[in-house]
Every structure is written in C-alpha cells, then in structure tokens.
Amino acid sequence: MADPEHRRTVVEPDARNEKAIERMVRAGLVLGPEINKPEKRAQPAFLSRDAVGRRG
Q1: CB–CB of 43/21 below 8 Å?
Q2: Phi, psi of 10 (to 5 degrees)
Q3: Does 3 map to a domain?
Q4: Phi then psi dihedrals of residue 33, to 5 deg
Q5: Which domain holds residue 28?
Q6: What pLDDT was estimated at residue 49?
Q7: What is the pLDDT of residue 35?
Q8: What is the rounded CA–CA span in Å between residue 18 and residue 29?
Q9: Residue 38 CB contacts under 8 Å (≥ 6 apart), including other chains
Q10: Does residue 12 fall inside a structural domain?
C-alpha cells in the first residue's frame, strides 16, 4: 500500500479455503459477504489503509 491513492487492499480467496480465511482474519482483514464468480464462490476480505496505520 505504498501509493497513498490506494485506500484498501481487496483479496478474494475461494470461500472453501478455511485456512486462508483464518489467516486473513488474524492479519486484520475484514470479511465481506460471499459472492459467486464464474470460476468460484469467493470470500472477499478488505484491509483499509487506516487499519494498517493503526497496526504500526
């Protein structure tokens, strides 16, 4: 997140990938609602610039 114009990072692993989702939550990402994509059922997660700043 070096570019100040980028306000958040978005990831979208397969919703069945429980280990990846657990790691994302531990890292501070906020889960969104599951969505259907043509290739998978995805679990979006978001990490805001503000959250990164609070972590130091």
Answers
A1: yes
A2: -125, 130
A3: no
A4: -75, 145
A5: 8-55
A6: 77
A7: 97
A8: 14
A9: none
A10: yes
Q: How far apart, in whole angstroms, are the C-alpha atoms of residue 21 and residue 44?
A: 9
- Facing residues of 24 across strands? none
Cβ–Cβ under 8 Å, residues 27 and 47: yes
Going residue by residue through the chain, which has 56 residues, state the pLDDT in tens, using 9 for 90 and above. 567 777 889 999 999 999 999 999 999 999 999 999 999 999 999 998 776 666 55
Structure tokens at 13: 């692993």
pLDDT at residue 2, as a whole number: 67
Listed in order, strand segments (DSSP E) in the chain are: 8-11, 30-31, 35-37, 40-42, 45-48
**Res 23: pLDDT:** 96
Distance CA 46, CA 43 (A): 10
Q: 27 lies in a domain? A: yes
Q: Which residue has the tokens 């692993």?
A: 13
